[in-house]
């Protein structure tokens, strides 16, 4: 039996990546749902959230699916995102990555998700859908 490298879960919902002005407050709509990520820098306020929550007047790119790396990842682990992004880059698939204290989330455009899942499975990644 071939051992799997890593397990990922394909989240069921579709998400958007939004860009707001760096001086805006974090909006309530961004904080709804099971997954959201908010990053503020000196240049912008960036929000990833369920696309159904995003108002029409917001600068965003919608139609992203998310692969969640299952389990807690130790900070000493090396090359996880590099390995995944290399596999997908070789197939012409762009990603947007979000990392938390415990794990990584890989955002992939909905139009590419089927090819991405197939490509990762071929490289011994387990994908739970």
Describe this structure in words.
- This protein is α+β, with helices and mostly antiparallel strands.
- It has one domain: VC0802-like, CATH 3.30.2130.10.
- It is built from two helices and eight strands.
- Strands 1, 2, 3, 4, 5, 6, 7 and 8 form an eight-stranded mixed beta sheet that branches.
- The model has no long low-confidence stretch (mean pLDDT 92).
- This is Amino acid-binding protein.
Give the structure's gist in a few sentences.
With 129 residues, the chain is of the alpha+beta class. It has helices at 80-90, 113-122, and strands at residues 7-10, 15-20, 37-40, 45-50, 60-69, 95-99, 104-109, 126-128.
Count of discrete domains: 1
CA radius of gyration is 15 Å
**Number of helical stretches of at least 4 residues:** 2
In terms of DSSP E residues, the strand content is 25-35%
The name of the CATH topology is VC0802-like
Structural class: alpha+beta
* CATH superfamily caption: VC0802-like
Give the integer mean of the pLDDT values: 92
Distance between the termini: 21 Å
Shape designation: elongated
Counting DSSP E segments of at least 2 residues, the number of strands comes to: 8
Q: What is the element string, with H for helices and E for strands?
A: EEEEEHEEHE
**Unreliable stretches, pLDDT < 50, 5 or more residues?**
none
**CATH architecture, please?**
2-Layer Sandwich
Main sheet record: 8 strands, mixed
Provide the CATH top-level class.
Alpha Beta
Helix fraction by DSSP (H/I, runs of at least 4): 10-25%
Pfam family, one: ACT_7
InterPro entries: A9CJY8-like_N (IPR049447), ACT-like_dom_sf (IPR045865), CASTOR_ACT_dom (IPR027795), CASTOR_mTORC1 (IPR051719), UCP008459 (IPR016540)
Protein name: Amino acid-binding protein
